[in-house]
Design a protein that fits this description.
single chain; alpha/beta; 5-stranded mixed beta sheet; 25 helices; elongated
Length: 683
């Protein structure tokens, strides 16, 4: 399988250092080739063309160019070619013109066969000619007689051949690795030293065969093809070894790096970053709604889609960056060098743009979106494990909040050390009754009288003061404390509702339910037991269900919702507008009230689109026979606007912030929500 991470066929931009280097090397190599052919002259070239030996060697060189001996951690087509013994033997026997011309023809044929870009084929041709030119210069410098005609080295002359072979290897290594270093934007010494022992050994073996090929040329040209057998054995052995290494380090479906190779490359990048004091970035990417493709069209289509994703990702990162598939629809991108968080965000944005273009498969267009999390070394983590964990946290924040791209932030990490410490304190808080319920009134927009209250949990922390729900509720939702937390919230709320009813306040009180609570089949029994224990009628309690829960878990939570309705407990759909839920999907679920999210409500004064959205929602809610409540009302203008649209009630700091129970009772008495000796019920 072609390595999707290999981007060497992507041409450099004109005028860049890489472009100038490739252009300069190509011109120099082609100039040397042309000069050597001119020096040989038409008669010399005709003599070479009449040599059957040259044509036999040409065939062997072409075959050898197509069968390089691959080395680990390198592209399959970038190893030492098995053509080297034959082309170097031609250099020894006939000199540079014959060797350069044969090698040039073989390089062009191999480039066409592998579909290499023209600039890459031209550079390969040039670097071969220059390397052979240096080797030829070494031989002719120390043995001028070698230029007089066919030369067969003997005895001590083999040392000169070895010196020329070393000159070829060094020149070829420097020419190629300079281009690779510029292409991947890494220091030259880091690529020069990579697998240098393996490459030196393979090239030494191949070059050592060249004098034997020369000896075979002298005796019979038909002995030359026999060298194909030991070279084929060497090629097969190396290929099997590299194939096993590739299978161990790459994903079978996409050809991308797997987790094992990602770990290795990240650790190498971190080691270099510590020495050179630069940043390393790790991006974790998860496709949105990919499961729907597999479920609807089957895994074969899903696999083809993943292969397309792999190709787009690798062509959207910089040379030297690594794209890996971690499994399923989750990918990682390693940035061995990144300037800052803004640069990492640019890469993430480029990846999302590349995926956004529709993919056409089986006559259908697929729109892909992805959530990307970013973590940087040393800003966020000192090693691979923490870097991966924190990129994962950022990715799930991006997915949950639908922001597309998120940089790791400690305060959003539900698994940070501070959060784990907070979890231990939460267990104590439940035992020692540190959780308290605050209450925020909901008012009728026609007369501003209270028609209900919403119970909001707070944690009165002994050191940190009163904590809002977002600081600890997500941690509870991921733990075994959920059931105890639900019991405590219902117990405090129902107890307060019972006391207020005894004082003449018969307003319904709402309690928010999370997805985790609604997935508990025991919840209806817990609610029923609490209502009986405190003598509170079901209509006095209202349960609020977040819209995102209805989007993600509608089928799973429906039985519990219906069971709660059977108890006579009214239900509200909370945060409407944030989860892409349509009222038509309620499918007869017993919801009496829709609470329009404050992010939309706050826009009705200044944003025409916001007014249209809220007005449409209020109109539809009324058509379905439900009540509409506007959340987050903070100004008189917003209150008047939503009232003019036909909204039933509103809630927000314009009327009252969340209040402690005693303050809420005082507010109700001051604002017509309770009168001594009279019971007031919500309409």
């Amino acid at each position: 399988m072609k390595d999707p991470n290999n981007t060497r066929d992507v041409g450099p931009r004109v005028g860049t250092p890489l472009w100038l280097y490739l252009a300069g090397t190509t011109v120099a190599g082609c100039g040397l080739l042309g000069g050597s052919l001119v020096w040989t002259g038409p008669a010399g070239l005709a003599a070479l063309a009449d040599e059957p030996l040259v044509w036999v060697v040409l065939c062997m060189v072409v075959i050898g160019e197509l069968r390089p001996i691959a080395t680990p951690n390198a592209p399959a087509t970038s190893g030492a070619p098995t053509s080297l013994p034959f082309s170097f033997a031609l250099l020894i026997f006939f000199g540079l013109p014959a060797a350069a011309l044969v090698q040039a023809v073989a390089t062009v044929v191999a480039g066409i066969a592998r579909r290499h870009a023209p600039h890459r084929t031209a550079f390969n041709l040039a670097q071969y000619v220059l390397s052979f030119g240096v080797a030829d210069a070494v031989m002719r410098l120390f043995h001028p007689a070698a230029s007089a005609g066919p030369w067969v080295p003997q005895g001590a002359e083999l040392l000169l051949v070895g010196l020329a072979g070393a000159a070829y290897f060094v020149t070829n290594l420097v020419l190629v690795e300079c281009a690779v270093a510029m292409h991947e934007r890494v220091p030259l010494q880091s690529v020069l030293g990579k697998d240098i022992g393996q490459r030196l050994f393979v090239n030494a073996v191949l070059l050592s065969l060249a004098p034997l090929v020369v000896a075979a040329m002298v005796h019979s040209i038909w002995l030359v093809p026999l060298f194909a057998f030991p070279l084929a054995a060497l090629y097969t052995s190396a290929t099997l070894s590299v194939k096993r290494e590739h299978q161990a380090n790459h994903d079978e479906l996409t050809g991308l790096a797997n987790r094992k190779l990602l770990i290795l490359r990240t650790q190498q990048a971190l080691g270099e970053a510590r020495q050179r004091h630069h940043r390393v970035g790790l991006l974790l990417l998860d496709l949105d709604r990919f499961k729907e493709v597999n479920d609807t069209l089957g895994h074969p289509t899903g696999d083809r889609l993943l292969q397309t994703v792999a190709l787009r990702l690798t062509h959207s990162v910089r040379p030297g960056d690594l794209v890996a598939r971690l499994g399923g629809d989750e990918f990682a991108v390693l940035l061995p060098q990144v300037r800052d968080a803004a640069s990492a965000r640019e890469v993430a944005a480029r990846l999302r743009v590349a995926l956004a273009e529709p993919v056409r498969l089986d006559g259908m267009d697929f729109d892909l979106e992805a959530s990307v999390g970013i973590a940087l070394y040393p800003n966020h983590a000192p090693d691979f494990e923490l870097l991966m964990q924190r990129a994962d946290v950022a990715m799930y924040v991006a997915k949950e909040h639908r922001t597309g791209v998120e940089l790791y932030a400690p305060h959003k990490d539900r698994n940070s050390t501070a959060r784990l410490s907070l979890f231990g304190e939460l267990r104590r808080a439940l035992v020692e009754k540190e959780l308290e319920m605050f209450y925020q009134p909901t008012v009728d927009l026609s007369d501003r009288r209270a028609v209900g209250l919403e119970a909001l949990v707070r944690w009165r922390h002994p050191r940190r003061g009163v904590l809002d729900p977002h600081e600890f509720v997500p941690l509870i939702e991921q733990s075994y404390l959920m059931r105890g937390f639900t019991h405590e919230v219902l117990e405090q709320t129902l107890s307060q509702v019972a006391r207020w009813r005894a004082e003449g306040v018969e307003l319904p009180v709402s309690v928010n339910l999370s997805a985790r609570e609604l997935l508990d089949p025991a919840l209806p029994d817990v609610v029923a037991a609490g209502l009986r224990r405190h003598g509170v009628p079901p209509a006095a309690l209202r349960l609020e269900i977040g819209e995102r829960v209805m989007v993600a878990e509608a089928d799973a939570v429906a039985p519990v919702i219906l069971a709660l309705s059977d108890l006579g407990v009214p239900l509200s759909l909370d945060d409407f507008g944030t989860g892409y839920f349509t009222l038509a999907r309620l499918n007869g679920l017993p919801v009496q009230e829709i609470k329009i999210d404050g992010s939309f409500v706050r826009r009705v004064e200044e944003d025409a689109d916001g007014r249209v959205i809220v007005a449409s929602a209020i109109d539809l809610v009324g058509t379905l026979g439900m009540r509409a409540v506007a959340e987050g009302v903070e100004s008189e203008g917003v209150a008047e606007a939503v009232a003019a649209m036909g909204c039933h009630a509103a809630q927000g700091r314009l009327f009252a912030p969340p209040l402690e129970a005693a303050e809420a009772a005082a507010w109700l008495r001051a604002h017509g929500g309770a009168h001594d000796g009279h019971r007031i019920e919500a309409p």
